[in-house]
Every structure is written in structure tokens, then in C-alpha cells.
């Protein structure tokens, strides 16, 4: 069975590749720059780009299942090409924003395009990535052992990237996941303040938490660049959803809006979902 993994060099895609190889699957990885992919030697790396659907024709030959990274602009064309090539199952790397009705047009068009095809489909909808804290706080922790944040008591259930990959891999390899949309969160409702404490404990050094205003944080994130700059408005409450979260936190309403436990990877994998402490231990060197 040959499986095509798009987004194979991403934070989740690399782990999906790793898991599929462990399961004995034949893995083909779609990459814009194959020479820079740095994937295991057993992976067949092919050149292609979701923004240019025609570049996928050769990559899809002989493929039975596909892990699909979301690219809304060409989603219908990619789905048509996959179905035409004989792909029978597609697992979409989507977002929990779809479940919450807050998708910005990035993920929902991809889900709908795949659903409209004749292929089996499964959507994996992760919530907040634990990795976000590495991209956001990593530079200041490494340089100054400090985290500057405007909403230290804002809490949610961040998810480990390996749990996301495990769900996607199960949906690719196992039967019984067809026409399912899995929202994947972490097992703990944990504040940013407690996340900073967990990072300090993992690296064995004090990390100071400095509370700043949203405006100060926004300017800091814009100057930092990368993930922080791209999400500065959302992270600091200048965009609607984040503003609502921040207002709830400031009012002391820190419990999840939805009643009952949030869904985690355990529903699919049968194993307890990884905690924030697990994730920090996995990434301690990245912070240190």
C-alpha cells in the first residue's frame, strides 16, 4: 500500500511519515524542494506543490491513500486529481476552528472538496498546538529566561503534535474512521502561567513571567517575526475570537465554554493523550 504524504516536512507531517514507516507502509512524500526534505532514506521523495495541482499528477500514480495538507485555493482540483488517479482514502489535516465555527476559509474548503469526491475521508481537527509556545516564547526564554505575556491566566487544552500525528496515522492505516471528523485537544486545562512553570522545571532553570499589556505584546510579537508576527493580532486580543477569550480570562471565567471533557487522541488511539509536561520534556533542549 503506497501512501502519499503532503506537508511531509511540517511539524506533524514528519511524524506521520515516521509512523507510517514504522507500520511498514510504502511512503511517498510531496515536497517543493526534495533536496532539502531531510526525510528518512526509505521515503520516496517527489517534487510537487499543492498550489500547482498539475505538479501532483506523477506523485499520485499508484497511490491508494493520501495525507492532505490544507491548501484551500486548489482543494477541488487536488481532490479531483486524486480521485482520478485511484486514491481511495484521504485524511485531511484540518483545524479545530472548523468545529468551533471559526474557520477563516483555510480548512473548511478543503474538507468540503474531499467530502464531495468519491473517496473515503477523515478530518483531523487539532486545537491549539503546544508547539505554538516554542515559536512564541522560545526566543525570549533562550536569550533572557523570561516570558512576556498579556494573559497569563488564559487557559485551554493545548495538544502535542505527536498526538495529532497518531490520529492521522490511525485514520490512514485502519478501517473504521471513514466519514469521521476528529477534534483533537490535549488532556489538561492549563494556564499560560502553569505552562511557563512546566518549562522552567523541564530545563532546570528559573523562567520569569512578565505580564505586559496587549499593545506591548503585539509590538513585541511583530518585531519577533515568524509565528509570533503572523499571529500577533490573534494572540493579543486584537482579533475577535482571541479578544473574547481574553475577556473571559480577565473576568475569571476560565472554564471551557463546552460542557464535559474535550476530545483527545485517546478516542482514536486508545492511549492516554500526552500532557504539556510530556511535551516540554520532549522539547527541553529547544528551550534551553
Automatic annotation (TrEMBL):
The family database entries (SUPFAM superfamilies) matched by this protein are listed as:
NAD(P)-binding Rossmann-fold domains
Q: Per the record, which residues fall in region Disordered?
A: 245-276
Domain NAD(P)-binding stretches: 7-173
Q: Name one Pfam family in it.
A: NAD_binding_10
Give the Gene3D superfamilies listed for this entry: NAD(P)-binding Rossmann-like Domain, UDP-galactose 4-epimerase, domain 1
> Which PANTHER family does UniProt cross-reference here?
PRESTALK A DIFFERENTIATION PROTEIN A, PTHR43162
Q: What is this protein called?
A: Nucleotide-diphosphate-sugar epimerase
Species name for this entry? Answer: Planotetraspora phitsanulokensis
Amino acid at each position: 500500500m503506497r501512501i502519499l504524504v503532503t506537508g511531509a516536512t511540517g511539524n506533524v507531517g514528519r511524524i506521520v511519515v515516521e509512523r507510517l514507516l514504522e507500520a511498514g507502509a510504502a511512503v511517498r512524500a510531496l515536497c517543493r524542494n526534495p533536496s532539502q526534505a531531510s526525510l528518512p532514506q526509505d521515503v520516496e521523495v517527489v517534487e510537487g506543490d499543492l498550489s500547482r495541482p498539475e505538479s501532483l499528477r506523477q506523485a499520485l500514480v499508484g497511490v491508494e491513500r493520501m495525507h492532505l495538507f490544507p491548501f484551500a485555493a486548489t482543494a477541488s482540483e487536488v481532490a479531483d486529481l486524486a480521485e482520478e488517479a485511484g486514491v481511495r482514502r484521504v485524511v485531511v489535516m484540518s483545524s479545530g476552528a472548523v468545529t468551533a465555527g471559526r474557520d477563516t476559509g483555510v480548512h473548511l474548503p478543503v474538507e468540503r472538496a474531499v467530502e464531495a469526491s468519491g473517496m473515503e475521508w477523515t478530518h483531523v481537527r487539532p486545537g491549539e498546538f503546544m508547539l505554538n509556545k516554542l515559536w512564541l516564547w522560545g526566543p525570549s526564554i533562550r536569550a533572557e529566561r523570561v516570558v512576556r505575556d498579556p494573559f497569563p491566566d488564559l487557559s485551554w487544552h493545548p495538544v502535542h503534535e505527536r498526538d495529532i500525528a497518531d490520529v492521522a496515522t490511525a485514520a490512514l492505516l485502519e478501517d473504521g474512521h471513514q466519514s469521521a471528523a476528529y477534534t483533537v485537544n490535549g488532556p489538561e486545562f492549563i494556564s499560560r502561567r502553569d505552562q511557563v512553570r512546566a518549562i522552567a522545571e523541564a530545563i532546570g532553570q528559573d523562567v520569569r513571567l512578565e505580564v505586559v499589556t496587549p499593545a506591548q505584546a503585539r509590538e513585541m510579537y511583530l518585531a519577533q517575526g515568524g509565528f509570533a508576527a503572523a499571529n500577533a493580532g490573534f494572540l493579543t486580543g486584537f482579533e475577535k475570537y482571541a479578544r473574547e477569550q481574553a475577556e473571559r480570562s480577565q473576568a475569571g471565567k476560565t472554564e471551557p465554554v463546552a460542557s464535559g471533557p474535550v476530545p483527545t487522541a485517546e478516542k482514536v488511539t486508545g492511549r492516554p493523550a500526552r500532557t504539556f509536561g510530556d511535551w516540554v520534556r520532549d522539547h527541553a533542549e529547544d528551550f534551553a
